[in-house]
């Protein structure tokens, strides 16, 4: 399902590498502006505490908000945890396709990209699942995440 998480409606125009903010806004049902600004504020605090980091240098060279060029795990992970979300790392090779994830609202980590998946439906600005061939690294969810991945394994084992 094509979904920008409310980015355009919030007045943020053009393409951007803001997949973490978009996926989070979609999965949490929070307004895009609220999520984007929260991540941006957390990024600014991180850069103040770590002025010699790559991100501080990256911020100096870019004119747009840094999280439009990707968002570091040190920024988004504490934010998602503060909202009651938890991360489940997928240790085996598992691709983003129907039935591969538990039902519910998820933020799925792919290689270099984050996408919202709601009850097995990808919500993004493009088909980021790669026709079921794109490998997942893990996912953020609310509730018992480990039980969710076990449910998926059980489904795949059934004839």
Can you give a write-up of this model?
It is a single chain. With 159 residues, the chain is α+β, with helices and mostly antiparallel strands. The chain has one domain (19-157). 37% of the residues lie in helices and 16% in strands. The protein is built from five helices and five strands. The protein has helices spanning 19-28, 32-49, 54-61, 73-82, 145-157; strands at residues 86-89, 105-110, 113-118, 121-123, 136-141. Strands 1-5-2-3-4 form a five-stranded antiparallel sheet, with helices on both faces. A hairpin with a 2-residue loop joins strand 3 (113-118) and strand 4 (121-123). The chain is globular, with a radius of gyration of 16 Å. The two termini are 29 Å apart. The model is unreliable at 153-159 (pLDDT under 50).
Distance between the termini: 29 Å
| Strand portion | 15-25%
Number of strands: 5
Q: What kind of sheet is the major sheet?
A: 5 strands, antiparallel
Query: How many separate domains make up the residues?
Result: 1
Tell me the radius of gyration. Answer: 16 Å
Count of runs of 4 or more consecutive helical residues? 5
Shape: globular
Backbone structural class: alpha+beta
Average pLDDT reading: 81
Order of helix and strand elements from N to C terminus: HHHHEEEEEH
Helix content: 25-40%
């Amino acid at each position: 399902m094509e979904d920008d998480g409310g980015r355009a409606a919030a007045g943020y125009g053009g393409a951007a590498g803001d997949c973490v903010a978009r996926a989070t806004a979609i999965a949490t049902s929070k307004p895009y502006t609220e999520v984007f600004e929260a991540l941006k504020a957390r990024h600014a605090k991180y850069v103040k505490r770590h002025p010699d980091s790559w991100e501080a240098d990256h911020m100096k060279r870019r004119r747009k908000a840094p999280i439009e060029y990707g968002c570091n795990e040190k920024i988004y992970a504490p934010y998602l945890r503060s909202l009651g979300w938890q991360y489940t790392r997928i240790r085996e090779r598992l691709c983003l396709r129907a039935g591969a994830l538990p039902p519910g609202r998820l933020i799925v980590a792919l290689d270099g990209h984050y996408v919202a998946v709601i009850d097995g439906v990808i919500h993004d600005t493009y088909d980021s699942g790669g026709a079921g061939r794109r490998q997942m690294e893990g996912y953020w969810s609310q509730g018992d995440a480990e039980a969710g991945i076990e449910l998926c394994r059980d489904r795949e084992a059934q004839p």
